[in-house]
Structures are given as C-alpha cells and as structure tokens.
C-alpha cells in the first residue's frame, strides 16, 4: 500500500525529497513552506503535489506521515501540531533548540500515541556502524574514552550565510551541527552525558567586511570550493552570532569521558573518531568514500602501524548512503511500528548536552548537569512507543487539489 506523506520546509534540507521520491510505495502528496520561492521550487519538482503555505492545510491533505525539514527553531511547534493531529512525524535533527521543547515533543508523542522519529542519519552511516561493530566484538575491550575532531571545511558556505548563523534560530552550531556527533558518542559509549562543559568563540567569521546573502538564495546557489580562504568569503550573514570554533568535554553516566571539537574553517571536511578501550583503540580515517577503521591491540614503542585495518564499504545515496536507510527505517516505523535504531530519547540527550555546553561556553566554561528524563518517558520510547497502535495508513484520505 502506498504511503502518502507531506513535507514541511522546502529549503536545503528538502534535498532529502529526492531520495524520498525514489522510494517505492511513497506518494509525496503535500508540501508546505512560507516562502513563495520555495513553493515555486516545490511545484516545479513535484507538479502533482498539493503545495501550500498553511500547516493546517497540509495536515488536512490526507497524509499519513510528515517530514519536518524546516529551520531548527520551528521543529517543536510544527512537530507538536502534527503529533496532535495523529500524524507520524519524521523530525530532522536537531529535534529542537532547547531542552524544554524537546521534552514537550516527547511528552506529546507519548500522550497522543502518534509516532515520533528523529532524523539522526549518522547512526546509519557505514563508518559509524563499523566502529560500533568493532566495539561490540570486544576487540578493544571496555570503552573508557572517545575523542572526536570535526573538521567542517564547508562551514562558511554551509552555516554562516543563512539562518544557521543566528542564535535565535539554532542556539549554536555546537548544538545544530554537533548534535550528530554527540549522539554517536553516546551510541558508541552506550551511555548519556551527565556533566558537560564547553569553550569556544566566533574567531574568524565575525570580522568580515562584505555581508549579506541575496534574498531567495540557498546554499546550493553559492557553495564553491573556490570560496577560500575563509577570510575572503563574502555574503556572511550580517547578524552572525554563533561560534565557529568550539571545544566540549563530557562525562557520561557510565563513567566514559569524551571530548568533541568543531572547527568551521578547516580546509578539509570530515570527522575523526578515536575510541579507547581497556584492550586497545580504534580510529577512523575518512568518513565516507574509501574510509578505513584502524585498530591497535598490541603495545608498541612510539607510533606503529595498526594491528588491523577494517575497510568501510562504499554505499550509494546521500550522506554516505545513510539517507535511504533513514527513510526506509522511518517508513517501516510508520507502517508497522516497533523499535528503531534512531531514538527520540537519544536525540533529546544530544540536545540537552549541546544546549548546556553552549551555556557553559558563553559564560564561565564550567560544568553543567544534564537534567534527567522521567523513567516512564524513557521506558515508553525504549519499548518502541507502544502506545502507537492505531494503523497510521487508515487515517490517510484522498488528496486535495491546490486552490
């Protein structure tokens, strides 16, 4: 049976719609965006879809599920409205930009029984899954520490020309961008951050002369590897107030200690993970095409070649092949329910860590304690949202005609 879906937000994140359109048994029935330019793009790409600027009209268009791909500060309100209407929701990460909104989303999903899914696609990337497989095999023993260096080579083009550059829309890039890696740190360590501290600053993109991106443009219109070095970049958001360099330390509830470092003006663009256990360590080189995981399990003097090199398979699809798997898992969840690899609880814990690390970074750089969730909320989502028993497809109705 075909699943009719809607999309809220047809900006740069709607590139996921291209993957969605190639997915069997899916109908992109309705698209909502407040921007006339975005709606024109939607009509051109999906001429059979109902395109609107009204969330209420999208909710009433007979869809069974919705992809919330709008700017981060709108995620909570849109998601809650859709959950209240009984729709299954795919909310792009980060699920919210404050802890209170993330908690409200969880509580709404539990109260209504509507299905909530958060798009943490890095759990489906081949290199993170390879690292998790090595850890689970016991080859490096019990994990004790994880160090992550995130070189964001396209940071100026991706995050400092549009809404991402403003705290009011994103809280920080440590939250917006770092939510991915914080979640993977938690996933690899099998624990959640208990205490966190941060340090950072706006060290490069705060001193530019020429600012302002033309109205109606988005990242795909200006991205270019010739935009280098960062000091020569133009079109920076004139209201930029988020950090371009940040360093975070985390103490997890199982004793694991972790660090995360993010730089938005590195010449290269990739993530480097080091995971240290009681019997060895692993480290990835590359995170998409031709990546490898190096594993050391014997004692040496000085640098030595790894004892084992695990080659990560190259996969087809956006975000290193993760997006097709992410979409597939969500649609299976919509149709059949059950547990998922991506976890709304884990998504909330990544939000909480990023929010509190940002507060620390912007004030005294001291430690912050992550507020706990109630046992009932955690159990509900860990069990696969057992309240979501109504067959979602039964709610779908015939499509509307655009007025």
TrEMBL record:
Stored InterPro entries: Gfo/Idh/MocA-like_OxRdtase_C, Gfo/Idh/MocA-like_OxRdtase_N, Gfo/Idh/MocA_oxidoreduct, NAD(P)-bd_dom_sf
Signal peptide coordinates: none
Annotated SUPFAM superfamilies: Glyceraldehyde-3-phosphate dehydrogenase-like, C-terminal domain, NAD(P)-binding Rossmann-fold domains
Domain Gfo/Idh/MocA-like oxidoreductase C-terminal: 133-365
Domain Gfo/Idh/MocA-like oxidoreductase N-terminal: 5-120
UniProt superkingdom: Bacteria
Family of this protein: Belongs to the Gfo/Idh/MocA family.
UniProt-recorded name of the protein: Gfo/Idh/MocA family oxidoreductase
Organism for this UniProt entry: Microbacterium rhizosphaerae
Taxonomic lineage: Bacteria, Bacillati, Actinomycetota, Actinomycetes, Micrococcales
